[in-house]
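Continuing the series of single-chain predictions for the mutant panel. This is the parent chain; the variants come on the following pages.
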Amino acid sequence: MDEEEIVKFFGKEEVLLSPDAVQFLKEKNDESLLKKILERKGEEVFITKEFIEKLVEEEKKIPLPPVEVKRAADFKPIAKEYTPQLKFLNEYDVSGKCSCGGSVDDFVKLFRDRLKRTRRMLETRAGASGITNISEIGGFAKEREVRVIGMVTSKIVTKKGHIMIELEDEGGVAKVLALKSDREPQRSCFEKANTLLLDEVVAVDGRVSEPFIIANDIIWPDLPIRNLKVIDREVCIAFLSDLHVGSRFFLQEEFQKMLRWLNGEIEEGNGRELAGRVKYIIIAGDLVDGIGIYPEQERELVVKDIYEQYSIFLKFLEAIPEYIEIIVSPGNHDAVRRAEPQPSVERELLKASNGRIHTVGSPSLVEIEGFKTLIYHGTSLDSVISAIPGMSYQHPEKPMVELLKRRNLSPIYGENPIVPESRDYMLIEEVPDIVHMGHVHKNGYDNYKGTVVVNSGTWQKQTDFQLKQGHTPSPCILPILDLRSGRMNVINFMKG
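Parent structure:
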């Protein structure tokens, strides 16, 4: 902006600037600073350079968390008595293995890998016998019963209200029709077809009616039904995500209150006894707010240096009791590639003084006390919520369950950027005991077929963008899973 534009901008608001203030703003060339001056000027009608410099310095500052939180002298945490039991299943984590070139062939290999491995899961669930390759259907007699497995490549609603999908395997494409009907099994099949996502792999039972297969049932890979897992050790896992350190919306005071609770300084929720059983903390991404993530983000930052953001984040981690193991996974705001799967945050950004801070990718699979724990930031929840009728941001556990049914964390190609690695790391090949996500800034919990589903919300208050979208977050609510009882404890640090 030149001097004339600056003077004109403030003239409309009947505000005068000193000559050196105009020169200072010209050199800064930051339109957001002009708006901040109007927000903070109060009754002032004459703005000096000193006023602006003071405002700029205040914007830079964020009170640093204490390097050390004092633990209450009478706090005797039982978790301290237990040796941690952690096993990182690295074959499901892309960290250190990013090697693809992003060619068309790479994408072809990725989708073939998805089809092959999902078919294997479907064969386990639906039975391998009787599965027909799509290329063989053309010679079948009319009304013959068939079962096919393929990837959904298109989905449309016909003029008569039926749903037609194209199902593709390595040998051909089949047109599948789910009839709109009040009679079973067509009614149930139609309801399932209505929730199908593009690029997911399913099995279809139906009958041949050239040029279609008339569907009777749609089968997802899904999870087997199991009992909720518990162990005979008095330890808990606490779940965090979406801190957004560096944002002016980060709720630092409430976060430090949570740290004091972990250290036995204050009573909250079920008191210090529960705090003393927390042995593990998982943070599912968006550790910091990042830089250049979305347009005009800079005006919402109080820390505009990515290294300083991580430095502050690390100071918070160091205030967590030393006997607690911390597992850190990235999100779309972190200093890793945006496309999924995401590798872990670089160790130089999280230089810790001991080995209790573990960095993993998104997604990743970690065995904690024998619980297979799937950690994923949850970026694909946006596309699932928009694609499946009945989904909403108010209940993130529902789209999370839909991903579990599909055994795929990001089924829709094109909605979320993906990297065509040699294998599809977004597939849920192992049956998890716990699934932890964040991203949508809303807490949600479920027990789906013996798998604990948890979305840990956020530690950031409602942003301007969320306000415009009508999305109400649930900040500062800490979910804690008791591994002995299977109970999910929830503590709200916004109260009081």
